Amino acid sequence: VCAGTLNGLSVTGDAQHQYQTLHKMYNNCEIVMGNLEIVLIDHTQDLSFLQTIREVTGYILIAMNVFASLPLQNLRVIRGTQFYEEKYALFVLLNYNPNTTHALRQLGLNQLTEILAGGVYIEKNAQLCHVETVEWRDIMRDPGLEPVVRE
């Protein structure tokens, strides 16, 4: 078990510092108590240490990154005890660099079966594939929320 963060889009230091902090917090972690915020990570970083995460109690924020793949293939549950922007348990935004070919191409959430509370927001990820083929409503427990998936 490891602690999550509540920083949103604010970051301290450069991309290297962000990566080192992320690695220190989540290496060998299976359950994130709180939020998993992955912000401003470069395409050269090895994120394989994230594959041990099976559960996040808060929300997941993936924003302003340029790595190709997110290795969260063992993540099964997002509990949504906290929301990003007051209603989202999974928020994926602006994961590409318009000046290069570096961009998020796949989320790799193939084991994700439940979002217990909160919605899904995925936008402005120029090269992200297959998100429109996911039946987000089957994963989201709250029938009153519509998943937002565009661009």
Automatic annotation (TrEMBL):
Which Gene3D superfamilies does UniProt cross-reference here?
Receptor L-domain
Example GO molecular function? kinase activity
The Receptor L-domain domain covers 28-139
The organism's place on the tree of life at top rank: Eukaryota
The record's listing under SUPFAM superfamilies reads: L domain-like
The protein's UniProt keywords, in alphabetical order, are: Kinase, Transferase
Task: Tell me the Pfam families matching this sequence.
Answer: Recep_L_domain
- According to UniProt, the name of this protein is ERBB3 kinase
